[in-house]
Amino acid sequence: MSADPIVNISGLNKWYGEFHVLRDIDLEVTKGERIVICGPSGSGKSTLIRCINALEEFQEGEIVVDGIELGPNLKHVDAVRREVGMVFQSFNLFPHLTVLDNCTLAPIWVRNIPKKDAEETAMKFLERVKIPHQANKFPGQMSGGQQQRVAIARALTMNPKVMLFDEPTSALDPEMVKEVLDTMVDLAEEGMTMLVVTHEMGFAKEVANRVVFMDAGQIIEANTPSEFFATPQHARTKLFLSQILR
Amino acid sequence: MTDITASSFVREDLVAERPAPVKTAGFLGFVRTRLLNSPTNILLTILGLLLIWYTVIPTIKFLLVDAVWSGKDRTACLAENAGHPVGACWPFIQAKFPQLFYGFYPEAERWRVNLTFALGAVLLLPLLIPRLPAKGSNAGLFFFAFPAVAFFLLHGGGITGFGVSWVAGLLQLFADSISGVGEVLVGLSKASAAGPLLWAIGGAIALVGTLLHWVIFPLIWLRDQMQAAGQGLWLDFLITAVIVSVILFMLGGGARAGSRPLIASLATFAGIAAVIKLMGLDHGGMPIVDTRLWGGLLVTLVIAITGIVASLPIGIALALGRRSTIPLIRIFSITYIEFWRGVPLITVLFFATYMLPLFLPGNFTVDGLVRALIGVSLFTGAYQAENLRGGLAAVPRGQEEAASALGLSWWKTTSLIVLPQALRHVIPAIVNSFISLFKDTSLVSIVALFDLLGSLRASFADPVWTTPSTAFTGFAFIGIIYFIFCFGMSRYSLFVEHRLNAHRRN
Ligand SMILES: Nc1ncnc2c1ncn2[C@@H]1O[C@H](COP(=O)(O)OP(=O)(O)OP(=O)(O)O)[C@@H](O)[C@H]1O
Ligand SMILES: [Mg+2]
């Protein structure tokens, strides 16, 4: 692993009112690394990755993304968001825009790219997620798996250096999970830096460089997938794995 | 049979085609299956027919069969002269048509009203037809250029200054009012227990006003110089054009974004200059027609269209303000909305017309029609805000998050993602407000403005046309006019709704 951190989280603490949701999180992600974050429901996984692109504010600590510092007062939000793409559990495609317009909106309005160029780029990414011929459909006319792949393409059109995935397959029927995971595997193979919150342990074993286990707002254990699944150290990890792998 | 046999089956005789048992298609089928298929439905059908009999037939009789179609005065519409019971007295409408349409707008100048309506129609129609291109510049022309042109067409008059003068005037007014407040406070301090405190605050405010005067002094000096130089308008116009174009060029990203914003801006100013020249605004423009002479459908449409066009942005701003995280903006929006929703429109109009002049500084008068326009717009704006609030609440939070995650700013997220979806949800409610606004314009007749209804009532006073059916004819006629406009809006909104919701699966 090259010692070239692209995301560096240190001493991160966050409270929702009185509730201490993230506690002393330290996490360093090197360029090209694929990290899978897992843990029981309510452990703060979503909150953590949403802090990375400033969808959530935090009270203590520091996040540095590609050299851009994101302190508690969320300076440089725009700069960070331009480097970080995000894929949501519920897709969050814009229902009033066609698939193509979904993918060109941000390049046109954030990067000031001419419409024609933006459309060309968008088509390239739609091809990569294997739905170029649906470009003129509206999201509501597509299956969940297709929508999620459009969402991935939409995030990629901004040329992010880091991609965040928050349970991208949890809202999908089982037969669609695979098509989305395949897309993500492709992306990983191209060398994208990825932070993925997921319960798909098969994906973790196949793609991840590191698995991070969270519980009660803290990182309990982080290890390579082989070590993590074969010899979990912490009692909570063992319990979690025994539940999830049955 | 008790034992189960294997169920194999082979058809031996093919079934011949037979006619359907009861006719279900066509008109007779419809009558049989929808109107007369059960005792309740038979009863309802009979009731429906009775209702039609007692409403539609008399209406047709009144409007068409028994109507009098020609005549010079009331005698034509009297039963003894017509030879049959008299329904609608259409010659009355014919005689009063100019008054119903223009009010007391001078006859020689009525072409200006016609031209304005024609211009409005020419700009509005392509805007309403989705297939036609160039929606952006079309909307710009209709919403910004048209109101200005319409004002100078309908009202007349010219301009002596442009951007610089206007800005200078506005800033001067602002600075004056700040100084004024300060002086009032200082004046109060002499008679008050908290004298020194008031004196200090008043003095400070007055000082701010004076400072402001100094800051804007160069601008005012520039204006006065230009006015003194004679042809101030064109000099002012040129300076404004240059300043605005440069600002737009900078905001548009400078040379990096290409010269398109610059060209667009210069073209706009060239267009403005052409209009000024064409309408002779630099030489005093057309003869002024005081708004007190306006009336009839002209006033109704001016109020309705201004109200419709102005209330939506007000409503959007308030609805967004109500969701704002900044307490001051939120509180202001809520207070505003609740205030305007809590008072009847009549009160608003009365206040605007008779009370407002008492509050305004002596030399500061606002035209009566303009006061009504402002009142109606602010009033309807509050309702639109509430309509929109529902639409905004229906847009999932994830939409905003996805847009932010893509790097869109709050403004872009709101205008490209949130508002378009929110507006789609509430088209029916918004158009509903438009329709009630259109009909509520008739309330302005109580503040001495003669809209369609007011003009009609005024025309009843004419002894030449007093007949038993004059009033019915008049109300029927303007009822039809109101209906045409409102029904048109309603149908168009349905069309837009279907079109915009085409992306929804079901
Ligand atoms: N806006 C909020 N206000 C208060 N508490 C919140 C808020 N959002 C989340 N929480 C709490 O913070 C904790 C962590 O939430 P988070 O969504 O990060 O969990 P998660 O690990 O992603 O869970 P899941 O697997 O169910 O998605 C939860 O206990 C949740 O109840
Ligand atoms: Mg979650």
UniProtKB/TrEMBL annotation, chain A:
What the entry lists under SMART domains is as follows: AAA (SM00382)
Keywords of this entry: ATP-binding, Nucleotide-binding, Transport
Supply the InterPro entries for this chain. Answer: AAA+_ATPase, ABC_ATPase_HisP-typ, ABC_transporter-like_ATP-bd, ABC_transporter-like_CS, MetN_ABC_transporter-like, P-loop_NTPase
| A molecular function (GO) term | ABC-type amino acid transporter activity
Among Gene3D superfamilies, the record links this protein to: P-loop containing nucleotide triphosphate hydrolases (3.40.50.300)
Stored SUPFAM superfamilies: P-loop containing nucleoside triphosphate hydrolases
What range(s) does the ABC transporter domain occupy? 7-241
Which protein family is it in?
Answer: Belongs to the ABC transporter superfamily.
Instruction: State the name under which the record lists this protein.
Output: Amino acid ABC transporter ATP-binding protein
From TrEMBL, chain B:
* Residues in ABC transmembrane type-1 domain copies: 297-493
UniProt KW Membrane keyword: yes
Topology in the membrane?
A: Multi-pass membrane protein
- A Pfam family that this protein carries is BPD_transp_1
Q: Where in the cell is it found?
A: Cell inner membrane; Cell membrane
UniProt keyword terms in alphabetical order = Cell membrane, Membrane, Transmembrane, Transmembrane helix, Transport
Report the coiled-coil segments: none
Q: Which GO terms describe its cellular component?
A: ATP-binding cassette (ABC) transporter complex
MF annotations from Gene Ontology:
transmembrane transporter activity
Is this entry keyworded Transport? yes
Q: What is its main location?
A: membrane
One GO term under biological process is: amino acid transport
Q: Where are the transmembrane segments?
A: 42-64, 111-129, 141-160, 166-186, 198-221, 233-251, 263-281, 293-321, 342-360, 472-495
Q: Which family does it belong to?
A: Belongs to the binding-protein-dependent transport system permease family. HisMQ subfamily.
Supply the NCBIfam families for this chain: HEQRo_perm_3TM
PANTHER family linked = INNER MEMBRANE AMINO-ACID ABC TRANSPORTER PERMEASE PROTEIN YHDY, MEMBRANE COMPONENT OF AMINO ACID ABC TRANSPORTER
State the name under which the record lists this protein.
Amino acid ABC transporter permease
